[in-house]
Write a sequence for this structure.
């Protein structure tokens, strides 16, 4: 069963009641405020915007964004202030606004005041290719630089959980590498094979895992047939798990800029879903990410 579309996520968010309180860290950005304005008007979220209030009001005024229904929380340390709202139970979602990723992670991972759990923090992106009506998740695209086997297993768990929430009861997970051949000179191929083995013996449940797979084999059945590597029990992937951050980041950004697509991203592994994309993202992408985070809520 395929992952749900962004249109379906928008419709589901439209029907959610009551509105979900969201704490936005770093609200002095017009695209952040615009996305929250649209989401608030559609009844998705009750925004709490954390940052220097004067700057937030100036950006809103200059961008023509009304702040009706917003709660402004004046704070120099936007990340810490937003995380505190989640810890107090005053917000169910955290949203990355105009702050750096290290600043947000520092607040989230603080052992005393953060949102740390026993899981690995990772970014999962939902990519929707419009011409082919294809959708798949990509992980980890933003946090773990060179994940260990244990971390990859944890990231896989988070991505599979999100896939379940998005309508795929048994997602097909491709563990990516540059080649489908297991070779000691490329340790990621050995780790991919180990993750497949764990799934086959029942150590990883709720999914079907194959690896190592090159991108073409995971993405295109015809390519797999030509290479005589087609697996009818697998087909094409619902989840692409990358060997490292370089491969993930380059692949995702290439798709974002050259493909006709919609996308949004969340951080998994914290005490709550985190709306998480680049500071350079558009209003539409931020809105997609909000809908994705809402779709991942229990």
């Amino acid at each position: 069963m395929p992952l749900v579309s962004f249109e379906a996520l928008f419709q589901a968010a439209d029907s959610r009641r009551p509105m979900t309180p969201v704490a936005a860290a770093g609200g002095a950005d017009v695209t952040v405020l615009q996305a929250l304005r649209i989401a608030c008007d559609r009844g998705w979220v009750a925004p709490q915007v954390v940052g220097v209030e004067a700057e937030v009001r100036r950006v809103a005024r200059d961008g023509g964004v009304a702040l009706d229904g917003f709660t402004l929380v004046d704070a120099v340390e936007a990340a810490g202030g937003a995380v505190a709202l989640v810890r107090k139970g005053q917000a169910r979602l955290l949203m990355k606004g105009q702050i750096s990723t290290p600043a947000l992670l520092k607040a989230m991972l603080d052992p005393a005041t953060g949102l740390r759990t026993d899981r690995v923090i990772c970014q999962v992106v939902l990519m929707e290719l419009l011409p082919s009506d294809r959708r798949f998740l990509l992980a980890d695209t933003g946090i773990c630089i060179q994940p260990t086997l244990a971390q990859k297993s944890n990231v896989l768990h988070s991505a599979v959980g999100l896939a379940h929430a998005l309508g795929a009861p048994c997602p097909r997970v491709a563990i990516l590498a540059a080649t489908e051949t297991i070779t000691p000179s490329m340790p990621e191929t050995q780790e991919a094979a180990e993750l497949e083995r764990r799934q086959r013996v029942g150590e990883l449940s709720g999914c079907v895992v194959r690896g190592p797979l090159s991108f073409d084999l995971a993405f295109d059945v015809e390519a797999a047939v030509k290479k005589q590597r087609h697996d009818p029990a697998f087909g094409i992937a619902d989840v692409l798990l990358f060997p490292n951050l370089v491969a993930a980041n380059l692949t995702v950004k290439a798709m974002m800029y050259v493909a006709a697509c919609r996308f949004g991203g969340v951080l998994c592994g914290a005490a709550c879903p985190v709306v998480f994309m680049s500071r350079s993202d558009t209003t539409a992408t931020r809105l997609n990410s909000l809908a994705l985070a809402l779709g991942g809520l229990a």
